[in-house]
Specification:
- By secondary structure, the protein is mainly beta.
- The protein folds into three domains: 29-130, Sandwich (Immunoglobulin-like), CATH 2.60.40.10; 140-228, Immunoglobulin-like; 238-324, Sandwich (Immunoglobulin-like).
- The protein is 8% helix and 38% strand.
- The chain has three helices and 21 strands.
- It has helices at 2-19, 59-62, 321-324, and strands at 40-45, 48-53, 65-74, 85-91, 96-99, 108-116, 128-130, 140-146, 151-156, 163-169, 189-192, 200-208, 214-218, 222-224, 238-241, 246-249, 260-267, 274-279, 283-286, 294-301, 313-315.
- The strands form six sheets. A four-stranded antiparallel beta sheet has the order 4-3-6-7, with no helix packed on it. Strands 10, 12, 13 and 14 form a four-stranded antiparallel beta sheet that branches. The chain has a four-stranded antiparallel beta sheet with strand order 18-17-20-21, with no helix packed on it.
- Strand 1 (40-45) and strand 2 form a beta hairpin.
- The chain is elongated.
Amino acid sequence: MKITVRVCILAALLILLVSCGKKGPPTLTTFAKPAPVRNIAALHRENSILLSWSYSVSSDMREIIKGFYVEKAAASGDNSPGEFNKLVFLPETATHYADTDFTAGKAYFYRIRVYSVRNVISDFSPVLKVVPAELPPPPSALSYELKNDAVEIRWTGAPGKVKYNIYKSHVKNVFSQRPLNKAALNGPLYRDIVQTGPSSYYVVRSLLDTDIKDEGFPSEALVVDPAAFVPSKPAGLKYVYAPKGIVLIWNENPETWVVRYHIYRKRAAESSFSFIGETVAPTFKDNVALISRTAYRITALGSSGESAPSEPADVYPPPPQDERQ
């Protein structure tokens, strides 16, 4: 009996040792010093200095990164950095930070350090000096003019050496942080492509073309509603006889945003024109046999607005076949 008890105890101890054994030593990677952030950029927009950075390391090193400390210093008397203080700690996924505690005209310095999960600290990033300027006033009186191949956005600019960024959205009051223009605009004009879907909203910001692009508050939003786009009336309506019916031909409208044409017909006994079909190309075949004088006219459509009708074309029944020969 005692032997059986001892055997059971030994077996239990063996199971315990196997299942609850010591963990293996941590890998050396977790103790590695993280690579530093290589560059920092800044943009002064409205009431924020928007810091941004990129951080690229191998996947195994990325797993050990805990986050970033952003540090800040004000300029000292000789315009060099004063004492740096930790501004904020951000998780390892962060690439942006908005600092709202600053005064226009004063110099500030920023740097970043990377922390690992074992609190091993990287070297400092390069120091970024930022001197936010007084912001220019927002543009005013935005308006647009519809051209054949573009929408021209105009506005009243701000005084001084000011440039502009323009932003667009299809959702009211929700705009991207990236402007439409690739380079800052020198004057109060922007030509955009014509879109015939939902309404477009535009705002413009005044911009000082400094190192950090001091960008002011947005203008009032301008709404461009394609439902208000009305093409010019089609021109050059002609016809040719077909074996069965009549083929209408006209000049293509100059507006690139015309989406289709409507065709209307009025026979001699009818008092008004009736809609008989539509087409996206400037040609249409009416397969109805002509037995009396018949008038046709065409309209062009944008997204929903319809042009004035073309000048009518009067078509008479074709002469007998033997006469046409």
